[in-house]
């Protein structure tokens, strides 16, 4: 039973070849491409509105030099949103439920932000390791604590996204299994469980969108400290 629950998070293979690359690239084909017409269709208009609103909210507290990261973080937001929501469809695979992928994204982007801060303003970046007004006796301990918290940031980013998606998928699978098992034994209870399953699916869709936004928002906050 335990293995069957976690089988949905295994990378699909065909002839011993992993299909993770196809699972990542294929949803991008569904996005509408810009046209030469004066008026866009509804899907392209909705996509542009979502991108403009999300980008304006993310980069609102960031200084103008940090706006160079707008294209990268906007693309990351679309990528995470697509991967998270596409994994809710039946017979699909969620690449962002893999800790290795999330840690790779979080670690590389966090390292880029830290290196940027050390190159542009090293004094200001190192100043975050020691809070202002701290007692002199506590300075070594505070520096160690702040350094550990700095290196924990990419781990927290990757684990948060993986844990939320994994927990939601497991809860949906358990509820759907219980609904199917009680359909012939207790049909009334199965109906209520089916309603609960529908509500859980809506909640998981909201979680998929929110977690993608939180991931990019935290990266923007780290960028704000180093720009």
Automatic annotation (TrEMBL):
GO molecular function: proton-transporting ATP synthase activity, rotational mechanism
Family designation: Belongs to the ATPase A chain family.
SUPFAM superfamilies: F1F0 ATP synthase subunit A
Gene Ontology CC annotation, any one: proton-transporting ATP synthase complex
Record-linked Gene3D superfamilies: ATP synthase, F0 complex, subunit A
Key words, A-Z: ATP synthesis, CF(0), Hydrogen ion transport, Ion transport, Membrane, Mitochondrion, Mitochondrion inner membrane, Transmembrane, Transmembrane helix, Transport
Database matches in PROSITE patterns: ATPASE_A
CDD domains listed in its UniProt record: ATP-synt_Fo_a_6
Protein name, entry field: ATP synthase subunit a
Catalytic function, reaction form: H(+)(in) = H(+)(out)
Top-level lineage group: Eukaryota
Residues passing through the membrane, by range: 9-31, 69-89, 101-118, 138-159, 180-199, 205-223
UniProt-annotated location(s): Mitochondrion inner membrane
